[in-house]
Amino acid sequence: MGYEASVASLDSDVLGPYLEANVAGFSGLINVEKFANGQSNPTFRVKARSGEYVLRRQPPGDLLKSAHAVDREYRVLAALADTDVPVAEVYHLCEDRDVIGSMFYVMEFCDGRILWDSAIPEVDKAERTAMYDEMNRVLATLHQIDIEAVGLSDFGKPGNYFERQYDRWSGQYRASQLHRIEAMETLIGWLGDNLPDDDGRVSLVHGDYRLDNMIFDATEPKVVALLDWELSTLGHPFADVAYQCMQLRMPAGVGSISGLRGKDLGALGIPTEDEYVSSYCERMGIDGIDNFAFYVAFSFFRLAAIVQGVAKRAADGNASNRKAAEMGKFVEPMAEMALEAIE
Length: 343
What we know:
The protein is α+β, with helices and mostly antiparallel strands and 343 residues long. The chain has helices at residues 3-8, 12-22, 70-79, 125-143, 161-176, 182-193, 237-249, 265-268, 273-284, 292-316, 331-342, and strands at residues 29-34, 43-48, 51-57, 90-94, 104-108, 203-205, 214-216, 223-226, 233-235. The chain has two domains: 3-108, Phosphorylase Kinase, domain 1; 125-342, Aminoglycoside 3'-phosphotransferase, Chain: A, domain 2 (Alpha-Beta Complex). It has a five-stranded antiparallel sheet, sandwiched between helices. The radius of gyration is 20 Å and the shape is globular.
């Protein structure tokens, strides 16, 4: 049995009784269906007589150090439950890998719209503008969370965030490298030589802040749940801003982000990078963001390293999505776009 088959269904005879014993109100497991999208932690829609739930698990097999930390996801979601950051309610974390073969947690199923195309063709111009403003608002709200008040003051390591992230993702990239890519070598060298000084800014950062990692209300331009907190940590807020702005610099069809490069943003009602950053700064009460090109280049580098990890898992037979094997071809163009940003 291949990996894809092993995650497509879970053993209901084991899972059903376990959830009834550990999730308040859960009863009568009907079926479990894997969501088709997503590259990292396999995610399932769980239907039961008591309602619908979402189960998110680590992939089985050997994992890179600190990757697929569903326990960290669970912790941050629980911490944000009573804040203004929209998140799904979490019900249970199972750290016993013997139950289904890996650690997992169960959370609320949030109904609404997940939008995959950054141009959001499903809505008109006015709603599109409102959706981008809502994403900006939620991001600023996240970055203003009092991390001590919500019990997350130890959720990340002290010190220079970008230095830590550079070391982590350089190491992850080397651990999953399948062949030498010159653009990545140049980028890794430049970033290492241009790491910014620690300016003391620390906030809870999402780490993968983008359109398709949030659920919008079915009828209103309102985010009802921010998803996929696997990469969240304490860090520099500008990393999240630059990460979302990557989509403005990327063409369509590069990796899992639907890029907007070459699109008529004005006609679409989508803010330019300068406009988006300006709105964020206004909400945060700051004058602007210096050295933004570094943050953008770093975001491309980190995403390229993540994508390389997906490709490596596919090569090893441990990918959660059939498209994972194709992801490796996007590493080089991402590195080239990073170099373009710093030029």
